[in-house]
Amino acid sequence: MSFLSRVMVLKSKAHFSAGGRGRPAEQTARFEGTRKRKAAQAKNRVGLLIAGFAVFYCVIGGRLTQYGIAQPETTSSILPADRLLASRPDIVDRNGEVLATDIRTVSLFAEPHKIVDTDEVIEKLATVLPDLDSKSIYAKLKTDSRFQWLRRQLTPKQQSQILALGIPGIGFRPEKRRFYPGGSTAAHIVGYVNIDNRGVAGMERYIDTQGLADLASVGMTSDQPLEPVKLSIDLRVQAIVHEVVVESLKKYRSIAGGAVVLDVHTGEVLGMASAPDFDPNDPATGGEEGWFNRMTNGTFEMGSTFKSFTIAMGLDSGKMGLQSTFDARFPIRIGGFTIKDFHGKGRILSVPEIFQYSSNIGTAKIADMVGMEGHKEFLTRLGLLTRMKTELPEVATPSQPREWKKINSVTISFGHGVSTTPLQTAVAGISLVNGGKYLPPTFLPRTREEADAMATQVMKPSSSKDMRFLFDWNGTNGSGKNARVAGFDVGGKTGTADKVVNGRYAHDKNFNAFLAAFPMDNPQYVVLSFSDEPKTDKGNGAALAAMSAAPMVKEIISRAAPILGVKPKFGNDGSALLVSY
Questions:
Q1: Do 125 and 137 meet the contact criterion of CB atoms below 8 Å apart?
Q2: Is the peptide bond before 130 cis (omega within 30 degrees of 0)?
Q3: 229 vs 88, 210, 262, 445, CA distance in Å?
Q4: 579 pLDDT tier (thresholds 50, 70, 90)
Q5: What is the DSSP string of 319-385?
Q6: From the candidates 184, 232, 248, 304, which is the catalytic residue?
Q7: The predicted structure's pLDDT at residue 349
Q8: Quick check: is 529 catalytic?
Q9: Phi, psi of 135, rounded to the nearest 5 degrees
Q10: Top-level CATH class of 81-228?
């Protein structure tokens, strides 16, 4: 047997000998079992994975279905549409005429993360909005935020033009914008709102302070229409007052003017205007001069109109009557000052003559007769030394001397030394003619019964009766003649006050006012007008109140009295009729 054959035989024997001992078979079985077990585990894991994905996609599908049928819910910091469309109540006059209302509009926004070419977006928007601030818009579009306002309150035409540009990442959100149909007619009464439809001034701000702003802050406002807020003003009267005041600036070349019409029995404001003014639809164009409401927020020395209150004080004190007389022959020297009359008569004057000739000397002596404490107390009763309470937020506090001395009482008696608001002066004038009752002014409707319940008796009815006589007397015989309107029996008191410039009285700058009431046989309304620094062809300050403020009152009453339902009377007893042939 060859060597190779022997080797093969030995190898064959060795193989069978090893298998016969069982070791290769056990290893093989063990290997086969492990392989089957791992295969089963793999199948189970794949099954679990498939089941997991199936459950995951079922949950997603279910949530998508839920979101599809559920109401929209906003979770971002941007206000939802119903908040942006939250309504403000309409503001209407006493007859229901709309003074302020909401209109629907849209605002332009961008989603910076969706903007591809910032420069292209700005260039396209500039074709529709040429006044766009490119630098500001560029900075907004380059931020990492997901929302940026670009322009608020667009016109429908602008929206249509921007839509036509097809700019990705640009959108519109619905909003509401405040609209004032009358423009500047009642600007200082109605006020205006800011870009977010929140009240900034006037009755708009008052409405917010009554709870609307609090509701908005907690998200309880909606787009449902609200009950209109009715004001006391009559839009027809308001338009007349506004027109007369605005025209007075041109007619008398004054720097400012104002007027108000008040109901003497309720304290309601029927019309009030201050000029310069502004358009609440675009308040930014008015500037600070236009925003300033001089009727309630400006304080002025009211000049000789204050003599009405000084004489009323003397009559109410019981220390004098209409027949009393005072020596006005000589000037009064006190505290280094000389008190004299502008057009002195150089004789003893009766109380009606003191009122008619506007005697500083006579008025000062009446104040001295009553005394400083009595003088201060009476003016306080009339509301002339404290901040006036009314709905308008813009109300100034009067100024007065820190310590009243005799010289202060003397000068205050004829309208120098105390500064009050024109509306405050008119309100005090109500007490002089309505039987002596003080009524706080209101820009909201107030019935006669409500007014009687809150009225305060500040002077005797007999004193008020005497003041009605003096108003009528001055309207017929004195400086009030330029305010007389045939048939309406207008009476009142003028006031021409030198203005304080750099701490000194400037004789070439006047603040002219006229306090009037009508009809004097049974007063229904008080009217006050003023003209600040009027000028005539004779030079600056040459215009007196009788030539500027009084004619303003005449124009207002002649046009507004018939609207207010005041019937004219002609003849000595008022029974004469006008007959047209």
A1: yes
A2: no
A3: 10, 12, 20, 10
A4: low
A5: S--TT-EEE-SS-EEETTEEE--TT---SEEEHHHHHHTT-HHHHHHHHHHH-HHHHHHHHHHTTSS
A6: 304
A7: 95
A8: no
A9: -65, -45
A10: alpha beta
- What's the pLDDT tens digit per position in 393-418? 999 999 999 999 999 999 999 999 99
| Backbone phi, psi, residue 511, to 5° | -115, 110
SS3 per-residue string spanning 192-231? EECCCCCEEEHHHHHHHHHHHHHHHHCCCCCCCCCCCEEC
Q: What is the pLDDT of residue 22?
A: 47
Record the pTM: 0.79
Measured CA distances, 109 to 46, 139, 167 (Å): 49, 14, 12
pLDDT at 289 over 80: yes
Question: For the chain, which residues make up each domain, given as ranges?
Answer: 33-70, 81-228, 238-560
For residue 475, give both structure tokens. 């309207």
What single-letter amino acid sits at 96? G
Q: Are strands 98-110 and 332-334 parallel, antiparallel or unpaired?
A: unpaired
The pLDDT value given to residue 519: 95
Q: What CATH code is assigned to 238-560? A: 3.40.710.10
Q: Which distant-in-sequence residues (6+ apart) come within 8 Å of 464 by Cβ?
A: 312, 431, 432, 433, 434, 435, 436
Q: Is the confidence at residue 199, as pLDDT, over 70?
A: yes
